[in-house]
Design brief:
Layout: E1 2-6, H1 10-23, E2 28-33, H2 36-43, E3 50-54, E4 56-57, E5 60-61, H3 63-68, E6 75-79, H4 85-90, E7 93-98, H5 103-117, H6 120-125, E8 141-146, E9 149-154, E10 158-164, E11 167-172, E12 177-180, H7 184-187, E13 196-198, E14 203-206, E15 210-215, E16 221-225, E17 234-236, H8 241-248
Parallel strand pairs: 1-2, 1-3, 3-6, 6-7
Antiparallel strand pairs: 4-5, 8-9, 10-11, 10-14, 11-12, 13-14, 15-16, 16-17
Length: 250
Amino acid sequence: MNVLIIEDEELAANTLQNMLVLIDRSIKVVAVLGTVEAAVNWLQHQQADLLFMDIHLGDGESFQIFQQITISSPVIFTTAYDQYTLKAFKNQGIDYLLKPFDEEDVRAALQKLSTLRQTETFLALRNVPVIEEAPARIRNRFMVKIGKLIRTVPAEEVAYFMADDKYLFLVTRDGQNYIIEETISSLEPKLDSMMFFRINRKFIIHITAINEMYKLSRNRVKIQLLRMPADIEVVVSEERAEAFKQWLDQ
């Protein structure tokens, strides 16, 4: 059985590979991919019998893969969060493993796949089209709090969003800094893609917040942003560089 692992944490991917080999030596891991973009590119040209798919990847949620291509292979989702169960089973999911999982959890998931393959349920599953969810509503403004004061910030006033540890900061063009109750992955699909772009794991930037850009090695781009502290370096990741250049040229 050929297995594709979509997981952005190297340790987690290696641990899962070792578990699969111990459980069944006939399993072959054909690739390990860490981003939505890499997974889409791979799956456009190749197939696997089974996908192990983390939900939070380097450039977004793995559900974005299903919005770009049709996947007929069964998927075992792996995540540290339990709020995505329904969404997972709407997108070819046959099981949902909460991290940290162990060998017995993986063995049970593979056994579930084996059972499904022997039933008409599995055959029907492969022919059911992916349920398309309504596109996320574009956010035109953001509610922020300053002590007891509540205000809204229009999207056009945002310079960039920055993830730092467990917090997501909204920074305006005039240098105001607010914490918003979102994650960078959940916020990304709600933004106007013509105006905002996620350049790496930490930053989503507004097109008008770019002051200067400098070419670096390995196709990367260094960006000087409005109101950016001098000690913080903002670089478009190698994986996002090509998409970033296409975004600039829209």
